Amino acid sequence: MKRFLSSVLVLGLAASGWAQTVRVGLNEDPDILDPVLSRTYVGRIVFASLCDKLFDVSRDLEIIPQLATGYEFADDNLSMTIDIREGVLFHDGTTLDAEAVKYNLDRAKNFPGSNRASEIEQLESVEVVDGDTVRLTLTQPFAPIVAQLADRAGMMVSPTAAEEAGENFGNAPVCAGPFSFVERVAQDRIVVERFPDYWDAESISIEQVIFLPIPDTSVRLANLQAGDLEMIERPAPTDLEAIRSDPNLALPTAPSLGYQGLTINLSNPEPLDTPLATSPQVREALELALDRNVINQAVFNGEYIVGNQPVPPSSAWYNENLPVPERNVEQAQALLQEAGFERVAFEMMVGNDPQSVRLGEVIQALGAEAGFDISLRATEFASALDFQEAGDYEVFQIGWSGRLDPDGNIHQYNTCEGSLNENGYCNEEVDGLLNEARAVVDPAERKALYDAASELYLPNRHIIYLYHQNNFFPHVAALTGFEAYPDGLIRWQGVTLN
Question: Within 10 Å of residue 62's Cβ, how many Cβ atoms?
Fold first, then answer.
């Protein structure tokens, strides 16, 4: 549905005194606002306003303190001591201390359905050393632990509020970030307001942020150009030149840490009896039917980076022995015939926004030339995630916003019990290599393990990696001080609306 923000809303905000209100157009509505259950990129954007983490990531991808002030590993790398920032309050006025940190890490590991559990699987226990210090005991050395605590696994929520709300906590989250939760109207808006007792309050000038899901990229941009939004995320790449040439807009940009691709359901909730699910040859044929450069040009105006792995070709973790394959229609057709098929039909779930539908149509056309009859199932994004979790899909065009450590892009998708493995791929040898990589500190040794694992899981093609986005955050020129980060989060420190 096309949508323009109402002047009544704008006037209402002005009348209520919110001179520093920023309205942000999101590509979709976030899922549940509970850090241990959340899965969406837009959810992480909202969390950056609500929920500070133990650690943060700088623009040059260094891990820096946030709610923690420092950490130290034991000589054997089997334990880690974290110093907690003093004087931090949750939005309900309760204190962030070592007990609260222990509660949160235990919750991330043990809460039913937690999507953080496999991210910190090697965390055995958390001990309160004193009021401002915790000690984490690990089952083995765990190289990604600090990077994991710089994302949702390290977000701190109020234990008091979490206990009172139980499984409903995500309906009204209480954290320790720069803004506190005000309201949420599903598919319409999420409103947060400046928390005056925030530990770094002097860095926050914005009084209120309203996140508005607007799936249509052209409508998001039109609202920005009309002054009904102050910022949008993920503009259509075909609109970037117009944005760059508009003197009233700015376009901060940063390369993404994530990827986009096709996730193929193999056995969720049980083994599927389809050509794609049962035949690696058919999955290879599908990859060979696709031309990543055509996709990038036709859908994204050449603004993204083609790739075939969980990390981009520019990454130090990229396996150069497995380069991006060229399109080969004849070989794709031959593979289908070897597998016993003339043509293969399947349904592909895509987001219901115009850009996702366009991407689906290009994949559909490329696949048809090689023998694939692809029907598209355009679905609202949060609903699509529910369908994926339930196994109600054949192929899903979806990606991952990316993490600083390669483990965050690989482990939970490609291990048998990974928390985000919702296609049912399982290879015990891959599990062993990826678990060993978590326990190795030396980068060269870790790289060798990731290479060995990728040479097993990439040829299986349960995920066909296609491209890596750049993060674009167009905003009105009157919004100053904003910087784009590779993790794609919106940070309000130092930002002012003139």
Answer: 9
Q: Does residue 280 sit within a domain?
A: yes
CA distances from 221 to 205, 215, 229, 247, 430 (A): 25, 11, 9, 14, 43
Please report the pLDDT score of residue 19 as a whole number.
Answer: 61
Pairing of strands 463-468, 259-264: antiparallel
Strand pairing of 344-351 and 372-379? parallel
Here the CATH number for the domain that contains residue 245 is 3.40.190.10
- 279: in domain: yes
Structure tokens at 293: 């450069």
Domain boundary pick from 102, 126, 160: 160
Question: 417 and 456 share a domain?
Answer: yes
- In terms of Cα–Cα distance, which of 312, 317, 323, 325 is closest to 449? 317
**Rounded to an integer, what distance in angstroms lies between the CA atom of residue 141 and that of residue 407?**
14
pLDDT at 284: 98
Q: Which residues lie below 8 Å from residue 245, measured CB to CB, with a gap of 6+?
A: none
End-to-end CA distance of the chain: 31
Strand partners for 22: 209
How far lies 239's CA from each of 29, 164, 197, 403, in Å? 22, 46, 40, 27
Q: How far is CA 333 from the centre of its chain?
A: 35
Q: Pairing state of beta strands 208-213 and 21-26? A: parallel
Whether 405 and 320 share a structural domain: yes
Q: Which residues of the chain have pLDDT under 70?
A: 1-19
Residue 337 and residue 348: Cα distance in Å, rounded? 22
Phi, psi dihedral angles at 412 (to 5 degrees):
-75, -15
Could you tell me the pTM of the whole model?
0.90
SS3 24: strand
pLDDT for position 231: 98
Helix or strand holding residue 357 (H, E): helix 354-370
